[in-house]
Amino acid sequence: MAGMTWTIASEPYDSPAAAALWRAYYTEVSDRWYLLHEGRRTDPAELEREIAAGAGADLAPPGGRLLVGRYDGTPGGSAGVRLLDPDTAELTRVFVLPELRGRGGAPLLVAAAEEAARALGARRIVLDTRTDLVEARALYARLGYTETGPHNTDPYAEHWFRKELGPARAVN
Description:
The protein is an alpha+beta fold. It has a single domain (about 10-165), classed as Aminopeptidase (3-Layer(aba) Sandwich). The chain is built from four helices and seven strands. The protein has helices at about 15-40, 45-55, 105-120, 135-140, and strands at about 5-10, 65-70, 75-85, 90-95, 125-130, 145-150, 160-165. It has a seven-stranded mixed β-sheet, with helices on both faces. It is globular, with a radius of gyration of 16 Å. This is GNAT family N-acetyltransferase. Keywords: Acyltransferase, Transferase. It comes from Streptomyces tricolor.
């Protein structure tokens, strides 16, 4: 695997790569929830409805960005940001395909999302996640996010995090 690297770039939320990653992300988090709480996978019809309903238009400019990470040129992960107010961006859809986990993609995607949030004018970034997504909670803590009180009323959110963003880094 020597020489394989991640590249991250902004991409339309409805590009083929973004749509495939959204499907993989939603399928995994939905199945995890249903397996934990009801002992079954997501009903296929429900899955299709929710994927269509959460297409991601809020991750389009001017108020949002969707970033796609490619590992050795192949789409392998995503992260999105959207402005909640002029100073606050929300981090969402942080996902790396299971077969590419452990190769450094998630921290790179989060860092790129933080830069995108700064470029949108945000001074802080917030996110929510669930208790069963222990890998996500550990990642955010490692990357300097602090657990806080709720910033939304999402029925599936159980943990909320926040990070103050410094000024945008100079691009060389």
